[in-house]
Amino acid sequence: MKRTLLVCVLFAVFSCQQRETAAPSAAAPAPAAKPFKAGLLTPGSINDGGWNAIAYEGLQRIKNELGAEVSNQETKTPPEMLDGFRSYGAKGFDIAFGHGFEYQEPAKQAAAEYPNTIFITSSGNTVTNNVSPMRFQIEESTYLLGVIAARESKTGKAGLVGGINLPSIDSSFVAFKAGAQSVNPKFEVKTIYTGNFDDVGAAKVATLSLINAGCDFIFHQANEAGRGVFQACTERKVRCFGSNKNQTDMAPDYVVASAVVDVPAAFVEMAKIVKEKRFKPGEQHFGFNNNIVRLEWNDKLKASISPQTIAEVDRLTNEIKAGTLKPPAGF
Amino acid sequence: MIHLSHITKTLGATRAVDDVSLDVRNGEIVALAGENGAGKTTLMRIAAGEIDADGGSVNREGRAELVHQHFLLVDALSIAENLALTHRGFRFTTRRIIEREASAIIESTGIELRDGSRLVAELSVGERSKLELIKAIARKPSTLILDEPTSVLTPNETTELFRVMRRIAAEGAAVVFISHKLPEVLEVADRIVVMRGGRVIAESAARDTNVRDLANAMVGRITEQPSDRATAGRITAIVGVAGNGQAELAAKLRDEERDAGHIPEDRTRDGIVAEMTIAENLALKAKRWNAREAARHAERMIALYSIRASGPLQRAGDLSGGNQQKVILARELDRKPKRIVAAEPTRGLDIEATRFVHEQLRSAAVEGASILLITSDLDEAFALADTIQVIYRGRLSDPLTPSEAATRVASLMAGVA
Amino acid sequence: MRRFAVAVIAAAAAIVLLAFSGALFGHSPWSLLSIVASGSVGSRFALASTLLKSVPLLLTGLSVAIAFRAGVWNIGGEGQFIVGGLAALVASRFGIVASLAAAMLAGAAWASIASAMRLWRNAPEVLTTILLNFTAIHLLGWSVNGPLREHAGQYPQTDLAHVALPEIGGVHFGIVIALAASVFAWWLLYRTAAGLRLRATGLNPNAARWAGIRVGAQLARAMAISGAAAGLAGGIELLGVTHRLFERFAAGYGYSGIAVALLAQLHPLATIASSLFFGALVTGAGELQRAAGISAGVATFGQAVVILTLIVFEHVRADR
Question: What is the pLDDT of residues B339-372, one digit of tens each?
């Protein structure tokens, strides 16, 4: 009985094995040119519909648009990150992304061992010959949101809901405040950090308390927890802004505009730079200039905004693109 | 009705049942007598269909219920809930319904057990055994098998049990009564079957035999009369109906007199660690532990206390009840404590093992230990004690000499004095 | 011995089952197995990585094994791991020995909160240890965002520890400590009177009490030792691998320790093999993602499959 079972198992294993080898792999490329290879390490699941999903989308676009060979891994601990980077280095990948500031040190360590691979972290400040951070200048967009809020507010107050107090998030808030106070120096901006990016309830409670304090515009940087912000704004009929992507559909009647960061496009751009051997170590800037950071209106609500405000936003957008206006950043 | 023919069963290395044939007819009470480890329980588990025989055939008419010596009850549930577990499907119910059903079930069995809402954990051993009996009888078995049911009962409870047994038999069921208490066997059974070493040694109608013949058949040699009492230390017996505070007294003494030797009432629950070896069980009170030394010590104890075991590394849980008790005695008495508290030290033991325990307690007393014997077995109390105290509702009577006790103990136990 | 045979069979069966479930993703079981093998032991880096993962698993596995042996349901390895890391970081200025000692003390103290609540208020430690995990996670989150945030102030992480464990061939010295700890745990449990009493308490607390063993003290002692092992795991992870703290520091090592200990049948020496197995599984799962695009959940899934197979096989055995 046991032996029969064993034979069955072995048979099954080998039959599968044979089927695999029998079918010629369609994906096998012509061997001549060495293919461009890009790897991605994410701190969470690529199915999260947010931070990690965006990076994965970028990776897929690199595959499709640049014909690259791609690979990705979810890594939670530094040893896993180091493993991932080393593995990409050892397999001769041209570029390896680490999607978060926490990838700086593993990147630095692996980069020393594999000088032919370029390691890119999403935000951070570590730079070596083959390690650089991508810097998304969302401040350019949040500055304009601040302008809109200050010009359209009736109460003279706006509220900001943040997840964790990270430099990138704080910086976008600094720019929002600067934009608002460029219109009205007395404009009040209140900030609450909930301490995490996934507690929808906490974000909702924070938003409600800001609304109770008189804020009539809400902007958030709380990733998935941002859902709670939109719930609160819908319930209390308060206008708000979307962040990172066009979030109009989260509250179609209340989201006035979104500060969009086209991360996938940045990934493609970054890979293109490396592929075309144009890479120079240092912070890799992505903003209004290469159309990766944008301000996107909710067309349905745009009519309710005063034409003067819209004209002012357009004017400032051009100034930022031209480089004559530099919104302040937190770091 | 059950019909067993040429049953054999091997457990581990021993032939627990060796070519046994047995018939129990409807309306008949058959007693299965024998020492611990004679194969009585194994044979009856086969008869009830709990385990399969290695050889031979079992014919059963209708349902057979085996009431175990150890309890199969859920402590955290009430009496009614325990009955519902065996008597109800997964139907929607409320506490009130199952309590009403429980009291109907209890009444139908003719056994007295009050207040079905009490938790099993709060019941005395006697009450628990009643509940087990109710569970079995309520299923209307055509064969009812009782494994050592009287070992935890008071004399009154025993009489009540016998009455129930006779009624069940009169109603047409076959009843098997496993016991080694020969007077009881003679009192209740129509026919007596004696087992020893897995075989049937003797079989006769109850009216054709007597205690002495049966005892000789069980033990295989002439039983000796108890030796005369000669104790230097003192043995004080605490007697009483189960559930009058004996367990609490023993637990209190356990926590207060940590240097004393303690023999707990419930040996499988409180006495041994079943999953550990004999050597480990014997070393539980030792200051140091060295596997080799412990094994040597265990070998000595096995010889000294004539523990029937394959060796020091045998699992204590695999030993028979009497041998488990010997392991506990070895652990508690071998250190020569000045004081010994023994609760029901012979409950469920056969004649041989009982005598052994009594000898050990006596010799400990001779060597100067003062012994507190908590027992519900009056014969045991009178056989061993210099002083007897009666416990009733948690209170101890004045110390009595055995002759004073002989006249007063019954009324003190009943709380009428 | 048979218990271990069952564990080995269960582990093997789980691997086969896992490989075949890969068929759902359109991969051949054989190629999946070879990817896992090459990703976990196929190269020097892979091997080193497997060993690095096995070290915390070995210690948290021992933590669980000791506690469960004594009948104490310490599910709080995760929290004890975290406070161990916190204490090790704070004490790192005083050297490696002081840092690791602080980690053990902190783990033991954290676990002892649960045994204190058990002994004084009869609060079940299964609940309290889990709740203490959440407390520790928030304590860590607050620390790295607040008082222990790096001096540059940029990210919610601490500065580097003042000391680091020495490394040989990519594997830090913690592996020696962890192996020594498992030998120590074995010696403690099976070669000392204290261990005998711990085990007796776990197997039958009633009998232990009647044999004059102070059961409450055994619970407290087992919990403290167990907490110390998990705390040590955190300390070693800090000084050997992460060198600093951040919110995801524990990464589930505390919970995985339960799987490690169960597969090892709660035996300290078998825990070594078990931790290597799970370490290889996690490392191999990484390669599985990179090379075959199979989701990261496969490692967790694998752990669950191993434990379920183990339970099934044990029941098969019990039925016979």
Answer: 999 999 988 788 888 888 899 898 888 888 889 9
- Give the model's pLDDT for residue C57: 96
For A136-195, write each residue's pLDDT tens digit.
Answer: 889 999 999 999 999 999 999 999 999 888 888 889 999 999 999 999 999 999 999 998
Query: Among the ranges B321-325, C6-10, C76-80, C143-147, which has the highest mean pLDDT value?
Result: C76-80
How far is the CA of A164 from the CAs of A136, A221, C38, C146, C273, in angstroms?
Answer: 18, 9, 38, 12, 40
Which CATH topology does A37-136+264-286 take?
Rossmann fold (3.40.50)
Please provide the size of chain C in residues.
320
Hey, which residues 127-166 in chain C have their CB within 8 Å of chain A? 141, 145, 154-157
Point out the least confidently predicted range of A224-233, B210-219, C71-80, C219-228. Answer: B210-219
Task: Report if residue C232 sits inside a domain.
Answer: yes
**DSSP letters spanning C235-286:** HHHIIIIISS-BTTSSTTHHHHHHHHHHHTTT-HHHHHHHHHHHHHHHHHHH
> Are residues B283 and B190 both part of a single domain?
no
Q: What is the mean pLDDT of residues A20-42?
A: 61
Residues B187 and B248 in one domain: no
Number of folded domains in chain B?
Answer: 3
Report CB contact under 8 Å: C200, B331: no
Substitution target from C196, C210, C213, C214 for chain B, most B beta carbons within 10 A: C210
Q: Which residues have a Cβ under 8 Å from the Cβ of A277 and sit 6 or more positions away?
A: none
C69 reaches B (C-beta below 8 A): no
The CATH number for B233's domain is 3.40.50.300
The domain containing residue B105 runs over which residues?
A: 2-219
B residues 245-274 closer than 8 Å to C (CB):
254, 258, 262, 264, 266, 269-274
- Can you tell me the distance from the alpha carbon of C185 to that of C65, in angstroms, rounded to the nearest whole number? 9
Q: Which of C154, C156, C290 sits opposite A164 (nearest CB)?
A: C156
Find the residue in A nearest to C34 (Cα).
A17
Of the candidates A91, A137, A62, the residue with the CA atom closest to the CA atom of residue A293? A137
Interface test with A, best of C28, C52, C298, C316 (most A CBs within 10 A): C28
B-chain residues near C195 (CB < 8 A): 289
If residue C167 lies in a helix (H) or strand (E), which one and from where to where? strand C167-168
Give start-end residues of each CATH 3.40.50.2300 domain in chain A: 37-136+264-286, 139-259+298-322
Q: Which helix (H) or strand (E) holds A244?
A: strand A239-244
Chain C residues within 8 A of A16 when measuring between CB atoms = 23, 28-30
pLDDT over 90 percentage in chain A: 61
Tokens of C25: 């993703």
* Optimal mutation site among C2, C190, C192, C196, interface B, most CBs of chain B within 10 A: C196
Q: Are residues B89 and B199 in the same domain?
A: yes
pLDDT tens digits, B117-172 = 888 888 887 888 888 889 888 888 899 999 888 877 777 888 888 988 999 899 89
Measure in Å the smallest separation between the Cα of B65 and chain C Cα atoms.
22
How far CA A63 is from CA of A20, A37, A56, A92, A209, in Å, comes to: 24, 9, 11, 16, 45
Q: Is A239 helix (H, G, I), strand (E, B) or coil?
A: strand
pLDDT of residue B13: 64
Chain B adjacent subunits, 3+ CB pairs under 8 A: C
